[in-house]
Automatic annotation (TrEMBL):
Homohexamer. The keyword Oxidoreductase applies. Keywords: Oxidoreductase. SMART domains: ELFV_dehydrog (SM00839). Belongs to the Glu/Leu/Phe/Val dehydrogenases family. InterPro entries: Aminoacid_DH-like_N_sf, Glu/Leu/Phe/Val/Trp_DH, Glu/Leu/Phe/Val/Trp_DH_C, Glu/Leu/Phe/Val/Trp_DH_dimer, Glu_DH, Glu_Leu_Phe_Val_DH, NAD(P)-bd_dom_sf, NAD_bind_Glu_DH. This is Glutamate dehydrogenase. NCBIfam families: PRK09414.1 (NF006929). The gene is gdhA. The keyword Cell inner membrane does not apply.
Length: 433
């Protein structure tokens, strides 16, 4: 902690992992002797840089850019870019740290990284977004490459931003290097199902957890937070599997739609018009908008928090439990506070941490890299079937590791132990580097 002052989110993520992996260390003393812990909490490389750009009024703006290249022991660095005013070193480090274990859990050959900027895209024109992205990439490009570091989207970085970032990389390097970025448009190297993958994957994970107990999603009420990429496609898949998703939100409030969120309308407002969740409530008969609150007091069987870190606290968890929630799967990264996780697990709620439940996004990014390397394009149905299988494997890895290490049913421990074990073996094999 003395080494990383003012980094509460990073310390929270590290504590969560270290608390669960004690049984792995007991079984593998060579991990302790090999200094795995000391090394794994220290990023291989941290890049911070100035991002100057000129707004539409001709004023100079300066933001800060980050790329934390945490671990490349399993493959090229891989992890998204986040553009949000709250971004700081602590948040990017926590996300990069989580990414190592998440990527290991997918079973694919990808390392862990995260990046972004404190730039706020809300209310900016397309031209401003483009100039910002070009300036950001003008510095970052030298650290990227299909065999080095492969970014993707995250909060505030969607198809539009990825297009501008990729275009600038191509211009500067004179290389159409498709595999250096994932989440690209399907017309220019992107993979089918990448857009849907994180949300779909989270719902597939819920299906897996319920199946262990002989239950399905059919007829269940689902509460989702957020209204971005992850939330929209979690809602869509929940509906396809016979559940009803009744909430969505943004940082201003949430909407309750008892008839089930209308995904077409939500996509139109969020992806096309770049509007607010209050606009959805205004245009959808029967929907109710609740300003300034989060959706966790609404009774649901399944909750999928899909907005941001620490958006579901101990009181929210108690409210969910009191209303009989059966399963909670983190679509976002670390949306539940440590207290919330404790409350949910103590009440016997099936709880899936983000590094397992939202791994479908990065797993499909790795499929995009495979397609780029082979100059192939797989169709939607095959790609979705692969995602479905990967989520089954992620569930299996977390579930069996939890049993093996004496914590049956504890997906937090299971995901951490399984991810850590794979990374630690590789680190040991590759020597002190
Ligand atoms: P988007 O930018 O598409 O959407 C983010 C949503 O969360 C918006 O509705 C936004 O509302 C809300 N939100 C963001 N910050 C806050 C905040 N401080 N308080 C309340 N609401 C907030 O991002 P994604 O859907 O891509 O990402 C959502 C989460 O999922 C993140 O934690 C991300 O790390 C995680 N994730 C994403 C993956 C992906 O493939 N996209 C993969 C794995 C994890 P508003 O517009 O008001 O800010």
């Amino acid at each position: 902690e003395a080494r990383n002052p003012h980094e509460p989110e990073f310390l929270q993520a590290v504590h969560e992992v270290l608390e669960s992996i004690a049984p792995v260390l007991d079984t593998h003393p060579e991990f302790v002797d090999g200094g795995i812990l000391e090394r794994i909490v220290e990023p291989e490389r941290q890049i911070m840089f100035r991002v100057p750009w000129v707004d539409d009024a001709g004023r100079l703006q300066v933001n800060r850019g980050y790329r934390i290249q945490f671990s490349s022991v399993l493959g090229p660095y891989k992890g998204g870019l986040r553009f949000h005013p709250s971004v700081n070193l602590s948040i990017i480090k926590f996300l990069g740290f989580e990414q190592i274990f998440k990527n290991a859990l997918t079973g694919q050959g990808i390392g862990g990284a995260k990046g972004g900027s404190d730039f706020d895209p809300h209310g900016r024109s397309d031209a401003e977004i483009m100039r910002f992205c070009q300036s950001f990439m003008s510095e970052l490009y030298r650290h990227l490459g299909e065999h080095t570091d492969v970014p993707a989207g995250d909060i505030g970085v969607g198809a539009r931003e990825i297009g501008y970032l990729f275009g600038q990389y191509r211009k500067i390097t004179n290389r159409h290097e498709s595999g250096m970025f994932t989440g690209k448009g399907v017309q220019w190297g992107g993979a089918e199902v990448r857009t849907e993958a994180t949300g779909y994957g989270a719902v597939f994970f819920v299906e897996e957890m319920l199946a262990v107990h002989g239950e399905t999603l059919h007829g269940k009420r689902v509460g989702v937070s957020g209204s971005g990429n992850v939330a929209i496609y979690a809602i869509e898949k929940a509906h396809q599997l016979g559940a009803t998703a009744v909430t969505a939100s943004d940082s201003s409030g949430y909407v309750l739609d008892e008839a089930g969120i209308d995904v077409d309308l939500l996509r139109q407002i969020k992806e096309v018009e770049r509007g607010r969740i209050s606009d959805y409530a205004a245009r959808r008969p029967g929907a109710v908008y609740v300003e300034g609150e989060r959706p966790w007091r609404v009774p649901v069987d399944v909750a999928i928090p899909s907005a941001t870190q620490n958006e579901l606290d101990g009181d929210d968890a108690r409210a969910l439990v009191a209303n009989g929630v059966r399963a909670v799967a983190e679509g976002a990264n670390m949306p539940s506070t440590p207290e919330a996780v404790e409350v949910l697990q103590a009440a016997g709620v099936l709880f899936a941490p983000g590094k397992a439940a939202n791994a479908g996004g990065v797993a499909t990014s790795a499929l995009e890299m495979s397609q780029n390397a082979a100059r192939q394009r797989w169709n939607f149905d095959d790609s979705e079937a692969k995602l479905r299988a990967i989520m089954g494997n992620v569930h299996h890895a977390a579930f069996t590791a939890a049993e093996k290490y004496g914590r049956p049913g504890d997906y937090v421990a299971g995901a951490n132990c399984a991810g850590f074990e794979r990374v630690a073996h590789a680190m040991l094999a590759q020597g002190v580097i």
